Amino acid sequence: MKINLLSLSILIIPCLILVFLEKCVRILPQKAPMADKLKKEGFHFSEEGILLNENKERFNYNKYSDRSKNQERYERIGNIVTEVIYEMLEQQLKLEKIFIPFQSNSSSRSFVFHSPDFLTSGKNKMILINGSGVVRAGQWSRRIIMNDSINQGSMIPYIEWARQNDIDVLVLNTNESRQCYKGSETPVTHAITAFKDHISPLPDNIKIFIVAHSYGGVVAQKLAQKFSGQFSKKVVAIALTDSVHFGNFAVTANIPIRNYVSSSEVLDTLLHEQDNYEVLSSGTREHPWTSDFAKLSIFAWFYDFLPSTDDSDDQTQHMP
To answer: Which pLDDT does position 107 carry in this prediction?
Structure first.
């Protein structure tokens, strides 16, 4: 009897994703300067990725009665956490820190993180774009990282999923933008510079996936408008998590776009659909959590655009 691989894969893929997530939980900061600096503040990340003090208690914002002292402490530790994540991107996830634009020798430049041999590997790519505010490359939400888990508030699950599926990653750093930074004066110019350096030179047969959270959706929209011709040829899917963009995002032809919004409905509930643009429930009503809650659905959706692992079965064109 012939087994229907499509039906079988529907059962297998969620299990594989859960196995991947279990591995992801164990990605932790190794001994490094910033991890040591965090310890001097009395904190470390546990094996579960939770920020704990020396008494194994979670981070508590209200340590002092003085609100200004609490905020100063939160920002100080938060800045160290940012550097810890930078170290993790390089040391454990094996990404490379690259200053942009490539062709500039200016000492005033922003930077991104990308997979080794990004331009020459021939692999498909995934671009990760954070929202606005204090978050930097590798982060969706500083608050979730510090109060809940580094694996829930960071981009680590997305990067690890990409690695396991042989997809290169480009992690933008849109909030590391200043007027004195050539090509990164604003979050949008930062993204445009990174796209010109990393994506424009790639051949059209390389598939590009994009995940963007909150204001990152505005940045992705500006990229789609700036590089409309390239988008239609290179980008195969855009997953937004509670994007705050306005107007018609689908400015280019035939690019599937999903916006996973904050909602009380269960994950994947279709809330609105127009042409190739779908609005789905992320499974949470809390804006900062949407990237974490939606990730399983995003991974499963992206599988649709990857080649089947068994080309011999004509019924199975894509993994679910």
So the answer is: 80
